[in-house]
Request: fold
Amino acid sequence: MPIQANVDLHHFNTFHVSARSRWFAEVATVEALREVLAWHKGKDIPLMLLGQGSNILFRENYPGLIIELAIKGITVQQSTESSVLVQAMGGEIWHPFVTHCLKQGWYGLENLSLIPGTVGAAPVQNIGAYGVELKDLLHEVQALEIASGNMKTFTNDDCGFSYRSSVFKEDLREQYIITDVTFSLSSKPRLNLEYPALQQALSDVPRESITPQLVSDKVCEIRRSKLPDPDMLGNAGSFFWNPRIGQDRFAELKALYPDLPGYAEGNSVKIPAAWLIEKAGWKGYRDGDVGVHERHALVLVNHGGATGAELVALSERIQASVAEKFGIQLWPEVRIV
Ligand code: EPU
Reply:
């Protein structure tokens, strides 16, 4: 069984910080996954699943076993004239999967183009971008229960999705390993063009000429224009959640800062954390090899040799500064280990 000791995680996290895992195994089948779990059983060490490491920050060496899920495969489960159920294994890389679906004429994922990470990691944090969330297209998830080794099917409802979260990040945290995800896609284009930046990017294209492929191209263009490519500059996308505040508090802040953006959500208002961080003066900040991206204030970056601890320290300084200036607490969206 291929379990390696003391493995450098530099290539297994998109921040590209150096940290070592005491044990590490890459698994390409459910059977291999079961074997590795059997090896782990009874050992008093922590266990962690990793996809592409695009939402994680290693603050220090990892004292347990990391399993890199590399199970591949895409199959059509069912198709009708207007819809298709597509199953993708957890180790498929997200963006090539989206591209594959578009080429086959399976639509719905185009707004989620270019998100880093794997298919198996996508439901955990209910990935979302440009007006679409994974939960809008997910049919079901199959996952292996670590304690029993049994497979369980989770319907969309069972997944308990919310903004950047799910039952796999909350009540069932670290209890299941997602092996595959089935998506409910459409064979007829069903475009979602609500997100302002997307609308703007498509403003000079007549509505009837907008195809899912064009939406995907535009989303890629917008992302590339402001989010750094992790292969060029280490980062994990948005570092913090966008905070929600009460309407009264929003009105008070709006009186002080008339350009404060806010999106009503029920009784609260969601504010872009990027705006708060930029207003607090951090955009483009750099200290040694840690910094805040110059084109997007919500993205912390590793300019080369930063350590996880240095990035965490910077994130804490940003939290303190935003709390002091606006009285709003920011919480990391990135998982800090
Ligand atoms: N803004 C600033 N300064 C900046 C950048 C943005 O003030 O440097 C303000 C602007 O007012 C802008 C607003 O923030 O209109 C929103 O910015 P953007 O459209 O880039 O979205 P976001 O809220 O920062 C969220 C997701 C992203 C996702 C985009 C697009 C979270 C935590 N992040 O970012 O997801 O791509 O919307 O839908 O919800 C990720 O999770 O890693 C991620 C990149």
Q: What stands out?
A: The pocket of EPU is lined by residues 129-130, 197, 227, 237-238, 241-242, 261, 272, 274-275, 278, 283, 296-298, 333 (CB under 6 Å). The chain has seven helices and 20 strands. The chain has three domains: 3-69, 74-226, 234-336. The two ends are 26 Å apart (CA to CA).
